[in-house]
């Protein structure tokens, strides 16, 4: 007796079995993993204990772009403890410099009055903050359950295959991005797009390459809301 039939008997009716074997087979497809078992390379790089302890960067000698300083100062006013602004402040530094480079970390640390080491500890923990240069545009293809069952691994492969040498695009798999209803989906520098068909991938990558709006008709933020007040 199959599992599906047993379940049907428990609830007292005979119902057609769902395509369970198909779903399990899709779920079991092994995602690529790096040494240590992670999907994210370098997350467990050891700290360099030979370096001198860092100090808080001196504002007199650390040049911080005015816009970045203003953004970080504004972020710091939003929390009871200004240090709580570390993640969005690092994200602001990353947007400006392309990654959490030593220069970006130094500038953020200078404005926040913390050591670069404090911020590196935060940046190296959070998946969306890059402590190595990866590419200006970040394409996160969700490979979590809803997206996996709708072909996310094939989508990620197709996006990677479409990239050319010299493209400043970082495409990678990501855990649930919270938009499971548009699976399979991807975040293009924070713009949610989905469901993405495999034959739309060449257009999508070309639009990203040219700095155009990615698949405008598939963007989550352009969907109409059931709340008429929310539609512009
Ligand atoms: S599983 Fe992909 S957005 Fe949730």
From TrEMBL:
Keywords: Iron, Iron-sulfur, Metal-binding. The keyword Iron-sulfur applies. Residues 210-232 are annotated as: Disordered. CDD domains: TRX_Fd_NuoE. InterPro entries: NuoE_dom (IPR042128), NuoE_N (IPR041921), Thioredoxin-like_sf (IPR036249). The keyword Endoplasmic reticulum does not apply. This is NAD(P)H-dependent oxidoreductase subunit E.
């Amino acid at each position: 007796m199959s599992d599906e039939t047993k379940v049907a008997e428990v609830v007292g009716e005979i119902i057609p079995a769902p395509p369970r074997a198909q779903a399990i087979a899709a779920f079991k497809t092994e995602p690529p993993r790096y040494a240590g078992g992670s999907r994210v390379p370098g997350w467990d790089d050891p700290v360099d204990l030979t370096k001198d302890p860092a100090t808080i960067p001196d504002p007199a000698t650390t040049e911080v772009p005015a816009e970045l300083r203003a953004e970080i100062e504004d972020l710091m006013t939003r929390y009871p403890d200004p240090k709580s602004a570390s993640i969005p402040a690092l994200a602001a530094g990353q947007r400006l410099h392309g990654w959490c480079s030593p220069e970006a970390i130094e500038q953020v640390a200078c404005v926040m009055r913390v050591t670069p080491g404090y911020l590196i500890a935060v940046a190296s923990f959070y998946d969306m903050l890059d402590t190595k240069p990866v590419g200006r545009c970040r394409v996160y293809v969700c490979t979590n359950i809803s997206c996996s069952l709708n072909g996310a691994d094939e989508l990620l492969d197709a996006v990677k295959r479409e990239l050319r040498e010299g493209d400043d695009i970082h495409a990678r798999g990501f855990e649930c991005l919270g938009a499971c209803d548009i699976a399979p989906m991807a975040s293009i520098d924070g713009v949610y797009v989905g469901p993405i068909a495999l034959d739309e991938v060449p257009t999508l990558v070309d639009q990203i390459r040219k700095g155009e709006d990615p698949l405008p008709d598939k963007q989550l933020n352009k969907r109409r809301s059931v709340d008429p007040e929310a539609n512009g």
